[in-house]
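Human: I hope this is not a bother. Would you mind checking the protein record under this note? Thank you for your patience.
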Amino acid sequence: MLLESLRREVLEANLELVRRGLVLYTFGNASGVDRDKGLVVIKPSGVPYEKLKAEDLVVTDLSGKIVEGKFRPSSDLPTHVELYRNFSGIGGVTHTHSEFATAWAQAGRPIPCLGTTHADYFHGPVPVTSDLTSQEVAADYEKNTGVAICRTFEKLDPADIPGVLVRGHGPFCWGETATIAAHNSVILEALARMAYYTAGLVHELKPLSSSLHDKHYSRKHGSAAYYGQPPDKT
C-alpha cells in the first residue's frame, strides 16, 4: 500500500474535523501531498467518517489521476490539486462546511481581524473569493473553485493567511501538513464564530490596529517568533 504514513496522517486529519464538529455526515474532506513522489492522499467521496479506514483513502497524482484505491476520490479533489500545484509550500488541505465560517462565505464577507486571537494565526482578514461565472460552474466546477482561490491569493501569501472563504460555499484551509491544515480549520471556525458574535454587539466593526496585529502574528511566526518552547525543549 502506497504512502502508509501519509495515509494515517490524512485519516487522522479527517477524523479531527469530525471530533471538532466541523463536518456533518459525509460533508468535508482532508488531503495530504507527498511532494517528492507527486502523489496526493484524499478522503473518498461519500464514505461515512465512522466507517473510514486508512486503506479506504484514495491516492492520485497531481493531475487527479487515481493511482491506488477502490473508491472514487472526493469530488473536491480538483480543488485540492489546484491548490497543491499553485501553493508550493503547503502539504495538506482541508474543506468543511463549518457553521460560522460558512455563514461568512454565504454572506460574501471576509472575516476581519478584530482581535489578537485572529492575529495569532492569520496575518490579515480571511478573504472571500469572487463568484464563479456561469461558464466556470458549467465546466470544471471543482477545478475552477481552486482557480478562484488562487486568483484571490495573487497578492496574498498563503503561508500568512492559511485559509479562504469560497463565496456561497464554505472554507478551505491548508498548512505544511494535513495535521496543520485540520488545525487551521478548527481555528478558522473559532475566529468566524467570535467575529460573528462581535458583529452583533457593535454597530461598526473596528479592525485591530496594524501594529498590534503585526506584533501578535510575529510572536508565533517567522524568524523573530518567541511564543512556545524552542525545538530542543519540546
Observations:
- The first strand starts at residue 29 and ends at 34.
- The CA atoms of residues 115 and 151 lie 27 Å apart.
- The chain has a mean pLDDT of 96.
